[in-house]
Description:
Order of helices and strands: HHHHHHHHHHHHHHH
Number of strands: 0
CATH topology: Na+/H+ antiporter like fold
Number of helices: 15
Structural class: mainly alpha
CATH class: Mainly Alpha
Radius of gyration: 20 Å
Distance between the termini: 44 Å
Low-confidence stretches: 1-5, 356-369
Oligomer: single chain
Helix content: over 70%
Mean pLDDT: 87
CATH architecture: Up-down Bundle
Largest sheet: none
Amino acid sequence: MNGWWTDRAMLTGFARSVAIAVPAALLCVWINTPLPWLIGPLFAIGTLSAAGVRLVCPVAIRSAGIWAIGTALGLYFTPSVVGQIAGYGWAVVVAISYALLLGLAFAWALRRWAGLDPATAFFAGSIGGASEMAVQGERHGGHVGMIAAAHSMRVVMVVSTLPFIYKWLDLQGSDAYIPGRLDVSYPGLALLVVATCAGAFVLKRIGSPNAWVLGPLLVAGVLTAAEAAPTALPGWVVSVGQIFIGISLGSRFDRSFAARAPRLFAVMAVTTAAGIAVSAGFGYLLGSAAGIPPATMILGTSPGGIAEMSLTAKVLRLGVPVVTTFHVLRLAVLVISAGTVYRWLARRSGWPLPDEDAPGGSAGKSPGR
């Protein structure tokens, strides 16, 4: 009985979220904001959730949203695009190195001004996936809630500012990249759904980060590169995916969110704003050197998430495959290397490591010095 009422409450909360998110998205379409299907739900759900309204986004809904975006992005990787991107290897290495340094700068600021312990500060500052950094942070003695909250705030700030800045500056491309298929076949769509979901399940099974983005992206990308994509993705699927992501991001900001650690959020707000500005300058210089349009490269080096930044590139027609490739490779390298980098720093700095402490290490410590 308890499980039934819990499920019913969750479904009610999600239905309430949809009832708020859809009109908010339509309003943003009407007033012509950037990314209206994402921005409208994000702002509306975030505002009401912070005011105390119980709004819910089940994990499956978030997964469905990022599946739609991952699949849509994969359909851009035509054979000619794959060949062109292969020539950007050195720029990818430079961008990944920059992301690692930016994450260290974020971590230093969180340690210095927010008073977080080393593990929490390091994994909260790293420009990787929120869930992956939270898991690794917990393994090294960090505070999971603080890490996840810091990542959520950073992504929301990037999503809430960059598209508006691009619109204000009227930065839009005449993107030469087009999806491998332009026609929609609903039997083909059924095959694409099965294939991409299978890819997500396989990656999730082996513990890959962001499986519901990377699995569909990989499968759709391989099919497109092989000129075997069974269909294009209907526009309404991408719009629904954006609504789901907007609800997911907005619902994290409940009334107690900022009260948990006001210093953390104050520091995150300042450092993220600075990070956006510095990354824009870096992206401009790297894009100019690599022969990539600077507006595209700024999105590729921004401290946002794969789905959100690649979606921004899609809407603004700014080098979707380039932005996606830079973010995917950055995520992969940072997720693989974050633990090793932290342990190296910990040994040099004398920070405690779980395997060097008493059983259980420092896991579960509350944030603070």
